[in-house]
Write a structure and sequence with these properties.
Length: 343
């Protein structure tokens, strides 16, 4: 018998301790505990919350922003690594699922970074590491493209869970790829971006994208967006005073929880820091699909054919030497691990 989970979700709207990895990880652990103490089974954190967004890309030239890029590289983390392990331990200790955005450094390099979402189970397992497929606009100065190797829906104690970062939630094909894997709970992580065009309402754009995914897929979406602290503004205005006005526009951050009918549940946060909570009953995803189940009966898969390349991107592929090849005067024989030992 189908019996879908019911749980409380939490979404964090806050600023990191800018480019201070250890302090931000400590903040994350405190917020995990707070969300769990309030009964949440899932807590979602903003995009690249560990530990900061490259606002300099928007207020400086690439040359002027280059020293800041170096600081970001030095504060970035590896996944897996000690920082994410500390967060995973907090998730296990408080029995809560966690989705968090981090600046991830390529383990084989020092200056290739990814905008990464890490999904952690309530027993502390790292379920997935999703690297943002395409950095948006000025972000291309900072992050490399991700791949689809972890464009995956994870089975968790609160149901099938997927996640996308910021502008990816505008990518219809990426969203469909998650829905087609049975996603019922979606995390959309964002950063506050007041430097968008003057007629662009960032908070409304975030809400609209989340509502579209919910209504089309008949799922719940937990939106978590960062804020811009005074610390961040002062860091940018130290050399570029004009950044004060650019980073002060209101309606640039939206955090909230949206149901399968596309409507916001409870009271969202606009610009202010805090944690949003909502009770979620995944059984509410069933009846709306009788009308529109776009990954099932309400589609024509004989007409539409979406293919997703899940091969991980690597800088190089090594091919081992063939068996019994004489190499530098030595006979080299490599065992085939697929073959059983023979007498």
């Amino acid at each position: 018998m189908l019996n879908l989970p019911k749980f409380k979700a939490a979404a964090v709207q806050a600023a990191p301790i800018f480019l201070d990895t250890d302090a931000t990880v400590d903040l994350v652990c405190r917020l995990i505990r707070e969300a769990a103490d309030n009964g949440a089974g899932l807590v979602a954190f903003p995009e690249v919350f560990v530990s900061g967004y490259p606002y300099w890309n928007w207020v400086m030239t690439p040359v002027q922003g280059s020293p800041w890029f170096e600081k970001l590289c030095k504060s970035a983390i590896e996944v897996p690594g000690p920082e994410i392990q500390k967060i995973a331990q907090a998730a296990a200790r408080h029995h809560i699922n966690v989705v968090i955005g981090v600046n991830e450094r390529n383990p084989n390099g020092i200056a290739t970074l990814y905008n990464t979402l890490v999904t952690i189970s309530d027993d502390g397992r790292i379920l997935g590491r999703h690297r943002k497929l395409v950095p948006t606009w000025a972000e291309k100065l900072t992050w490399a493209n991700g791949d689809a190797s972890s464009l995956t829906v994870h089975e968790t104690s609160i149901g099938p869970l997927g996640a996308l970062a910021c502008g990816e939630n505008t990518n219809t094909l990426a969203r469909f790829a998650l829905l087609s894997q049975g996603e019922l709970v979606h995390v959309a992580s964002y950063i506050s971006l007041p430097v968008a065009p003057p007629d662009y309402d960032m908070a409304e754009a975030i809400r609209l994208r989340a509502a579209a995914h919910c209504f089309e897929g008949k799922v719940f979406t937990i939106v978590a967006c960062s804020t811009i602290s005074r610390e961040i503004v002062q860091a940018m205005t130290a050399t570029h005073p004009e950044a004060e006005e650019l980073l002060a526009r209101p309606n640039s951050a939206f955090t909230g929880i949206i149901g399968p009918d596309g409507r916001v549940i409870g009271s969202p946060l606009i610009d202010e820091e805090g944690i949003v909570y909502a009770d979620i009953d995944l059984n509410r995803c069933i009846q709306p699909r009788q009308m529109h189940d776009i990954t099932g009966h309400y589609n024509r898969f004989d007409i539409f054919d979406l293919q997703v390349n899940r091969q991980p991107m690597n800088a190089i592929r090594f091919r081992d030497l063939p068996l019994n090849r004489d190499y530098l005067g030595e006979s080299v024989e490599r065992a085939d691990p697929t073959q059983e030992d023979r007498p």
